[in-house]
Design goal:
Helices cover 74% and strands 1% of the residues. By secondary structure, the protein is mainly alpha-helical.
Length: 315
Amino acid sequence: MSNAVVDREVDSKKESRANEIKRLERREGWKRRLPILPALLFTIVVTQIPFLFTLFYSLTDWRIDKLEPRQFIGIDNYTSLTEESEKFFREAAWVSVQMTVMAVLFSLIVGTMLAILLDRKFFGQGFIRTLLITPFLVMPVVAGLMWKTQMLNFNFGIINWILNGLGQESVEFATRYPMGSVIVVLVWQWSPFMMLIVLAGLQGQDPSVLEAARVDGASTFGIFRQITFPQLRPFLELGTLLGAIYLIQVYDHIEVIVGGQPGANNLPFYIAQRSIGGGNRFGLASTYSIIVVIASIIIANIGLRVLSNLLEDDS
């Protein structure tokens, strides 16, 4: 038997063995995926099908105040967003961007500082941690009512009581600073969420590495900047991503605290007003909803990119 024939047989056996290995890997892969397949299908049904219906409705002229069938108008709803009549939509979009960016940024900063304080042993640590987590567990409507009536109220709010004690006049925060009032409440409620994420990153550090840095004479700030902060990158990115996705959809706080005053009407509030709040233009409201989804993706990606660049420059 010639060497060429032997080589062909060896190659054939290798190929057959490789195909058998691939087949077994595929089978094992399906065995691992099969238990989660029902959950995956359920997730697709409850998330993607409503989204597809919303996408379809955004291409129609659907108004419930007219006894007429829905009319397919293509992308007319999208092109109308550039018209002068839709300036309030553009203003709401800009408010959403500002509110989301500032709320996420300040929540991340405050949450990081709180996590650093909790990342050490002291008496009552568990009790203090529970107290700090409490704001995140409060329902948004309750949080808005509490801040509006007890903290920001012009006549008997705690903040104005402090200002009066310092010789300053009372301020109607919800009227003079509507966006700032909402952002303060959002930061108060979402900082514990960021704190938990960052605290998980801090507690996942290798103590031996930190101890070696201290032995070498590194300062506390130097250890945090050179070792801890770069290791927190995935946790900070996760907090930014989740915060941007959730905070761009804020509605309850705006409805309760400022009640639709100009300067704090974001996209979700504007969409509600144009659909169930009196506009009754469900086709156009669906278009707005699609824009919110796109904006959420864009803001989250921009936030992650900026944060990644900052961490790379610091590391």
